[in-house]
Amino acid sequence: MKNLPSNLNSIIMHVVLFTYTIICLFPVYLLVNNSFKSRRAIFKQPLSLPNEDTFSLAGYSKMFSRIDFSIFFYNSAVVTIITLFFVLLFGAMAAWALSEYKFKGNTMLGLYLALGIMIPIKLGTVSILQLMNTLNLVNSLTGLIIIYIAQSLPLAIWILTEFMKQLSNELKEAARCDGVNEYQLFFYIVLPLLRPPMATVGVFTMVPVWNDLWWPLILAPSNGKQTVILGMQQYIGQYVTNWNAIFASLSLALIPVIIFYLIFSKQLIRSITAGAVK
Amino acid sequence: MKKKFPFHIIVFLFPACFIYSIFMIYPLIDTMRVSLYTQNLLGENMDDSSGVRAFIGFRNYYDLFFNDTWSWHFWNALKNNLYFFLLHVSIQTPIGLLIAAFLSNKELKLKNTYRTLIFLPAMMSIVIVGYIFNLILSNLWGIPQTILGVVGLEDLYQPWLGLKGSALITVSLISIWQFVGIPMMLFYAALLNIPEEILDAAKVDGSSGLNTFWKIKFPLILPTVGLMCVLTYVGNFNAFDLIYAIKNIYAGPEFSTDLMGTFFYRTFFGYQHQLGNPTMGATVASTTFGIILIGVMIYLFAFQKRITRYQY
Fold first, then answer.
1. Domains located in chain A, CATH noted
2. Positions in chain A whose pLDDT score sits under 70
3. What is the pLDDT of residue A231?
């Protein structure tokens, strides 16, 4: 009898959590599921899985005939990967300087760089657009990449600094005794040790960049330079009535992020719960 | 003896500081400067920096707050945005807390699966989420009618996103649905960080589960609750994508879903018969910046001071 209350508790917890999980997944299920169905079936049986009669790839073929989604994917991938590379490199370099060396203004500089975590870069849009015009970077992926690097650096530096403070001194001192200079120390010894926090920084950089609408909308709205999200948004704006194609394009834009998340979720969640992000 | 500033430190710091300062800090400050000017709007290219600008001090701010052309939209967007935020805090935070409290239970099975799946929507593009719900809630598809029909309540259905009275609440609930995972994760992390001894001591003293939660765990994670509130506040006043995806920049019906982000966009780029106005756009952005700053200050001074005594 003693176990009864705790059993009851765990049943209640499972019911609540399970229900909430269903609420979270239901819209995603509806979307992806219906992207593989014929138009009739979307309206007649929206909840059921596709079967022999209702399975259809009409939406996907319609979409691919109208626009070249592969260009958008290419653009998004290029922007995301290059951004990530520079955020990790520059972020790690700055975090290393802030955590390793004592110099005048260290704390102030750390605070200055952390400001960007709280202040949304969107608020500088008016001047950024002007700046990009002057630099001739409007309608280019380069402009997007630069903005994304600036936007992602503060959080990356914060997370990496916290991590670097925990690195053991012995390793660094041993290397220094062997006559390794500061650059070699950083690039050959410290950088390879950063894999765990880099996964976290990677997710926190890549997901917002991949999902962003604002900057592609403002900086690269013209043909051939759209990211997936902007391209999809413009496409849906044009073909509001073709539900197959809408479901197909939404699913296509969504699935990469889901796959990416499921691959990295363990690492991401572990680092959040370990207190890397406070 | 004064040493020369070591060159390698500069090398390590330069790239990050340069990009961050030029493309983030400078534009923020420059936006505030631009907000003190007025611009000849007849220029063809509205983001053309060569357009003639004249210094007018705080006139733009006066117009934004008190001149009918702007003020109705401004106060409307601000009011909607505050409501949007209050709904988030009062719904998202408790749900996140409840789920986190359940997940922090050590004996619970499948908790990693729950955690991963409940966090999933937070990883999705807001634009996609907006479109999905636009379809789900549309008249044509009939999903809510079907679901409500199961329990015999199909008459309850209304085109919630299209009605002036319910559009903002519906949009807020969609956003809450998407981001519940974030408070859940932060609270979960905070609950895991509570020292084991404290909880053991409570158990020995005969404290029940619920009692332990409210009297011991909750006060200890209060700093995280405060942090969550301020993060939500900043995020909410930065919101744009969701309204844009569901309602476009017109934030209908009758601007009932207009937030500072959409108002900023319309002011800057123009819409229908209104020309884009970069300097007024800068004024809206700077005002939003001020609003965000006020929220962060309140958190830092009032909230954090009061809760420091709970720290362990």
1. 4-58 (no CATH), 67-238 (1.10.3720.10)
2. 1-6, 240, 274-278
3. 87
Is some CB atom of chain A closer than 8 A to the CB atom of B193? yes
CA distance B106 to chain A (A): 11
Residues 129-148 of A with CB under 8 A from B: 129-131, 133-134, 146-147
CB within 8 Å of A231: residues ≥ 6 apart: A67, A69, A71, A72
* Beta bridge partners of residue B54, listed in sequence order: B38
- What backbone phi and psi angles, to 5 degrees, belong to A241? -95, -15
C-alpha B301/C-alpha B299 separation (Å) is 6
Q: Is residue B148 part of a domain?
A: yes
A65 touches chain B (CB under 8 A): no
- Per the domain annotation, does B263 fall within a domain? no
Binary contact (B6, A101; C-beta < 8 A): yes
Structurally, chain B folds into a number of domains equal to: 1
Give the pTM. 0.90
Tokens of B86: 């209050």
Confidence band (pLDDT; 50, 70, 90) for B306? Answer: low
The reply to whether ipTM tops 0.95 is no
B 20-49 near A (Cβ less than 8 A): 20, 22-28, 30-31, 34, 47-49
Which token pair is A173? 């001192």
Place of tokens 């590379």: A85
Find the closest chain B residue to A203 by CA distance: B123
Nearest to B103 by CA among A18, A142, A256: A18
Rg (CA), chain A: 24
